[in-house]
Amino acid sequence: MRCSSDRHRRSPTPAILTLTLLFLTGLSAAWRPWPNQQNNSTDDLQLGSNKKFEGSSEFVKLKYHMGPVLTENITVHIIWYGTWSGPQKRIIREFINSISAPDHHPTPSVSGWWKTVQLYTDQTGSNVSRTVHLGQEKNDRLLSHGKTLTRLSIQSVIKSAVTAKTKPLPIHPKGGLYLLLTADDVYVQDFCRNVCGFHYFTYPSIVGYALPYAWVGNSAKQCPGVCAYPFAVPDYIPGLTALKSPNGEVGIDGMVSVIGHELAEMASNPLVNAWYAGQDPSFPVEIADLCEGIYGTGGGGSYTGQMLKDGDGATYNMRGIRRRFLVQWVWSRVVNYCTGPNALD
């Protein structure tokens, strides 16, 4: 499979056909299905609802499969697809910049959250890098690939960004992550139904390189009750009250947690052959999947856990350089349960 703009039309190799099939079926993507648990992988059936709880170490068989992790300095290049306001961009930029902020910043901190991700190592024993930089950015306000994107066309958007005639994004195969963010009026395949974001890697047949990337959508207009929970609540749960978002942007504050989810999984499993649970890499249950919907101590099932609330009523669980954020926890390979910087134990 290849996009129509490719100049060379060689027949794809069997390996490329296999990878493309996995990609198109969505099996290797990092799913974010809350609250509609629609993953039907064998792993999900084995772990059941218990995989969402802090004390589920006896149920989780997270393993290292000898693939690379991001041990070199990480640079996140952003593609802003559609129309974004300055304040929206600043919230997301600050979250990424806060990952490597000095430890003396107020706790609990975003950099403290990343320390759990740093616990993951490659086969040489080298840890995921502590350093995460915000790289170059590309604006695609005119929606060069249309207002509706498929999983495969997302790779074409990335190709356009790295091959642009003016200010292309740099090709950075070893430490570069490419983050495609779609505005609230852009429709993406499976968005809102059972996914709020996913990560994978680009096909050399399309982009020219295998580059780890993630897509995350702004759900503010389409499904905030699914992808911006708990700052918005689903209509089918009566009596549930939405929490006040820390930065006054429900869709963007919801995106921040999904971005954190995907960055953690790309760092520990960039080519879908490193850290995950389950026997089949086409159904990976990764370090953030294991803690979906958990933001504090006691979290699991439909309970988010104990979070923090400021005097203005906003709910959060970690601080960045200047702002507050609510970001889901990730699985610790050392203590074998979900943890975060605001843990009470």
TrEMBL record:
Location(s), subcellular: Secreted, Extracellular space, Apoplast
Pfam annotation, one family: Phi_1
Any one GO CC term of the record: apoplast
Major location (coarse): secreted
Signal peptide: 1-30
Keyword Nucleotide-binding on entry: no
The family this protein is said to belong to: Belongs to the EXORDIUM family.
Identification of the protein by name: EXORDIUM like 3
Species, as recorded: Deinandra increscens subsp. villosa
